[in-house]
Amino acid sequence: MNENTASAQKVAIVTGGASGLGYAIAEKFVNSGIRTIVIGRNEEKLNAAKEAFGALCSTISFDLSNLQGIPELVESIAKEYGQIDILVNNAGINMKKPFTEVTDDEFQRIILTNVNAVFALSREVVKVMLPRKKGAIVNISSMASQYGIPKVIAYTASKSAIEGMTRAMAVDLSPEGIRVNCVAPGFIATDMSAKALNNDPERKNKVLSRTPMGHLGEPADVAEAVHYFASDAAKYVTGTVLTVDGGNSIGF
C-alpha cells in the first residue's frame, strides 16, 4: 500500500508498451499505482492494453521514427499530465539477414527507430524533467550488445549504441537529479521469441545449454528490473546496465 501511495502521483511513458516486454513493464507500473502512458503503433494492441490496464493507463498511437513529431508529442503529454517522472525506452525493431545482404536503407531504418528516436524522445522528456530536478530513464538493450549474434548486425549496432548512450546520458543528467540506467534482457519467453526458437530446435538448444538457469526468462522478470530502476529504491544507482538473462551472458 505504501508503494502505491508514494507513486500515485508518478507519470511514466513506456514506448512499445502494447506488446511483449513493454506490455509487462506497463502492467507492472500500473499495478504499482503509476499513471502509465503507452506509446505504440498498433491501434488494436493499444486499445487491448488500455482495456486490460484500466484507468491508470493512457495510450498514444505514434510512430517514433517520425523524429520531427517528437517535441510536439512530449509537449502535449507534459501539458496534459503536468509532469513526466519516468521514461522507458523499450520500442525497437529487429531484422535478421546475412551481413552482406543488409542494405544501407535497412541498416538506417533500424538505427532510426532504435537509436535516433531514443535520443530525440529522451532529449524532449529531459527538458520536462529538468525544472523539477528529478526523473528516471530506463533504456532497454539486449544480449546482442553483450556478444556477437549472427545475422543481426544493425540491431547489434543499435543496442551497443544504447548502452554507450546510457553511460553518457547518466554523466550528463545525474548531476541534475535525473538517473539513467539500462536493462539488457536475455532470452525471454515472448510470443515472438517462442515462435523463433520453436521453429529452430538447434538454436533453442544452444540458447538453453549456455543459460546456467536452464530455462527462458519471463517478461515479468524484465519488468521487475525496470521497475526497480524507475523507483526510489534505486535512488543511488545510475549509468548501469543490468543483464536479466539467467546467466546466459556468462554461460559456457
Automatic annotation (TrEMBL):
Keyword Oxidoreductase annotated: yes
Which Pfam families does this one have?
adh_short_C2 (PF13561)
Stored PROSITE patterns = ADH_SHORT
Taxonomically, the superkingdom here is Bacteria
Question: Mind telling me which CDD domains this protein's record contains?
Answer: SDR_c
Key words of the record: Oxidoreductase
Question: What InterPro entries does this protein map onto?
Answer: NAD(P)-bd_dom_sf, Sc_DH/Rdtase_CS, SDR_fam
Molecular-function annotations in GO? oxidoreductase activity
SUPFAM superfamilies associated with the record: NAD(P)-binding Rossmann-fold domains
Family of the protein in this entry: Belongs to the short-chain dehydrogenases/reductases (SDR) family.
Name the chain's protein. Answer: NAD(P)-dependent dehydrogenase, short-chain alcohol dehydrogenase family
| Upper taxonomic lineage | Bacteria, Pseudomonadati, Bacteroidota, Cytophagia, Cytophagales
